[in-house]
Amino acid sequence: MSWADRHLRPRTLATLAVAGAMAAAGGGLAGCGFHPLYAPPSQEQSAFDANLAAVTVDPIPDRIGQLLANSLRDSFNPGGGVSIGKRYGLAVALTTSRSEVGIRSDGTSSRVLYVVNARIVLRDLHDGHTLFQALTRSNTAFDNFIANEYATVVAEQDAQARAVQELSNEIRSRLAIYMRRRTETARNGG
Q: Which residue range is the domain that position 27 belongs to?
């Protein structure tokens, strides 16, 4: 028997046994309805959800609000071609703030923190009752280029786009969880 057979083979078998046990545990979690909250969207998570497609997004003021409204509409009905009667209305109120977080030795700012707070309210369109409300926030930052104003504008627009994407994902996740719980409660007679 060679040295590799005596020393490496038991470790390889143990590694395979551990990997098999982990795969079995992962398969068991998938069967019980486990879905990772912060995982990138998979085919299943980005699949069409009739409850989310039934949500109409109210207009949101300002440029960042328009970007967020478009992103939410696209995420609620990914194909865009499915026509479902609207049962829910979503109102989003945004507040934004900028603060200088990096200061150069000459007293000018080098970095800007861009904060977007969103208050979301989901209501039933038939009776107007509020079904769900929440607060969410996105913090992004961008470089403040003193010598190149155009670069600062582009960096700020990029920070807005990142904030919109983060808020859109968060709002979609929260509404999907709420809708899933509501459907399960109705199915169980609660």
A: 1-36
Output the CA–CA distances (angstroms, integers) from residue 129 to 9, 72, 134, 153, in the order listed: 65, 21, 15, 41
Q: Are residues 113 and 24 in the same domain?
A: no
Q: Is residue 125 part of a domain?
A: yes
Q: Do 75 and 31 fall into the same domain? A: no
183 near 149, Cβ under 8 Å?
A: no
Give the bridge partners for 138, in sequence order.
Answer: 116
Whether 44 is covered by a domain: the verdict is: no
Answer yes or no: do 71 and 117 share one domain: yes
Q: What averages of pLDDT result for each successive group of 10 residues across the chain (190 residues)?
A: 57 58 55 57 58 92 94 84 83 95 85 95 94 95 88 93 96 93 82
Provide the edge-to-edge strand list for the sheet that holds 109-124: 55-57, 88-103, 109-124, 130-143
Instruction: State pTM to two decimals.
Output: 0.71
Could you tell me if 124 and 131 are in contact, meaning their C-beta atoms sit under 8 angstroms apart? yes
Main-chain dihedrals φ then ψ at residue 31, nearest 5 degrees: -70, -20
Residues 115 and 139: beta-carbon distance below 8 Å: yes
Neighbours of 33 (CB within 10 A): 8
Domains in the chain, number: 2
Q: What phi and psi, each to the nearest 5 degrees, are found at residue 37?
A: -70, -40
